[in-house]
Specification:
The structure holds two protein chains of two kinds. Helices cover 71% and strands 0% of the residues of chain A. By secondary structure, chain A is mainly α. In chain A, α1 runs antiparallel to α2 and α1 runs parallel beside α4. Chain A is elongated and about 50 Å long. Chain B is mainly α. Chain B folds into two domains: 241 residues, no CATH class; 42 residues. Helix content of chain B is 61%, strand content 2%. Classes of the chains: A mainly alpha, B mainly alpha. Chain A: It is found in: Endoplasmic reticulum membrane. Chain A: InterPro entries: Emc6, EMC6-like.
């Protein structure tokens, strides 16, 4: 029984390792950008928009530098690079944002 | 402390807070939560290091052979058909005859729920979970007791009025902005926000995660009341699963793929593959195509 040209099969441990790397990068960035937002004095929706912009920027950096524009080699789908870990980073972002905002303003 | 509260609802209220609030409340609560988290993680490592008693070899074999069956099912396509079938028949036979069971005599009897080793493991897990929840509640009570009655910090984002009663507990003014919050809400904010910091500091899978404990509590309650598993039934179920597993060797047409990669043959799709298998005349067709393209 001949098979077709196979889809790539993924090694689960490698995928988990890559996801952990991305989570690490995002948490660090969230803390830093949260502090930046607090110092800048962003309030309300501007703060969340800022988080959106910086997370897109972070995704772009991951895509360009880490995966060298070939995310499908490292993840199940290429778009995982852009969406993974964004929600977890949101909480640290809010924490540091509130902290620095309260201290500075 | 000086207050300057504007009463118009459109401007955001500006309160000038004593900087002593910042020094003695904001930072200490955060520092305490971080330290307690690190402490809990280390304590968990200590508690589990001295560890459960070494399980018996047969008990380990019982569980691991199930994993072996599952591995065969999921990765069976990587090995040639003969190996796959020999493994399959051996495992199916072993499951049925109960080679890997801890005590083969008890195969058809009901499981003793007071099995000492199973109980010990359950108790360990429960003890660990409770040890985690206690610091959470202690800190919450501490924060409530010492740091109530004043607003702590202004949240930079707008919130609805429904949150007011939760976030401003202890402060009785009715028209202060919801953005000014009490220390309890700072505690909650820390609870959520420090999770990722813990994963940064302590590496993955750390035990300082309060949230994970809170979500794991209901699940643990449901499973701890169950009996230790009846492995014989599990083995039989695994045997059924194995018998149902088809095998499609991924390397079956590897010769063609290799040749296609080096350009000696054009890449083939599924339909052409089927045609090729059915008629031998098409083989010469492909050879002709390859030659016409020119030497490589």
């Amino acid at each position: 029984m001949a098979t077709q040209t196979p889809q790539a099969s993924y090694v689960p441990e490698n995928i988990v390792y890559n996801s952990k790397k991305i989570t690490f990068i995002r948490s660090s960035m969230s803390a830093i950008t949260g502090s930046a937002a607090g110092i800048l004095g962003l309030t309300g929706y501007y703060g969340f928009i800022f988080y959106g912009i910086t997370s897109v920027f972070t995704s772009f950096l991951i895509w360009a530098v880490k995966t060298q524009a070939k995310p499908s080699l490292y993840f199940r789908t290429g778009s995982d690079v852009w969406t993974e870990g964004v929600f977890g980073g949101l909480f640290s972002y809010v924490l540091f944002w509130t902290l620095l905002y309260g201290i500075v303003h | 402390m000086s207050y300057q509260v504007s009463s118009s609802p459109t401007e955001s209220q500006a309160l000038y807070l004593d900087p002593a609030i910042r020094d003695w409340v904001l930072i200490p609560i955060m520092v305490v939560m971080v330290l307690v988290g690190v402490f809990r993680d280390q304590v968990t490592v200590l508690l589990s290091g001295s560890g459960p008693k070494k399980p018996v070899l047969k008990a380990i074999r019982e569980t691991r052979v199930l994993v072996r069956g599952a591995t065969l099912r999921s990765y069976g396509n990587h090995i040639p058909p003969s190996s796959f079938y020999s493994r399959k028949s051996y495992l199916a036979n072993a499951y049925e005859k109960g080679y890997y069971l801890k005590n083969p005599i008890a195969m058809n009897q009901t499981v003793n729920p007071m099995d000492p080793q199973g109980m010990e493991m359950m108790m360990e897990g429960m003890k660990k979970n409770f040890a985690m929840i206690i610091p959470q509640t202690v800190i919450m009570g501490w924060v409530n007791f010492f740091f109530s009655g004043f607003v702590l910090i202004k949240m930079p984002f707008p919130l609805t009025l429904r949150f007011k009663s939760m976030l401003q507990r202890g402060v009785e003014t009715s028209d202060m902005d919801v953005t000014w919050v009490s220390s309890l809400s700072w505690y909650f904010l820390n609870l959520f926000g420090l999770r990722s910091i813990f994963s940064l500091l302590l590496g993955e899978d750390n035990a300082a995660d309060g949230m994970r404990d809170m979500t794991a509590m209901p699940q643990m309650g449901a499973s701890a009341t169950g009996q230790p598993q009846n492995y014989h039934k599990l083995h039989l179920a695994e045997k059924e699963n194995l018998e149902l597993t088809p095998h499609a060797w991924e390397l079956e047409d590897v010769e063609y793929r290799l040749l296609a990669q080096y350009g000696k043959r054009p890449r083939i799709s599924i339909t052409e593959t089927n045609e090729r298998n059915e008629g031998s005349s098409s083989v010469s067709e492909y050879k002709g195509k390859g030659r016409k393209k020119g030497g490589k």
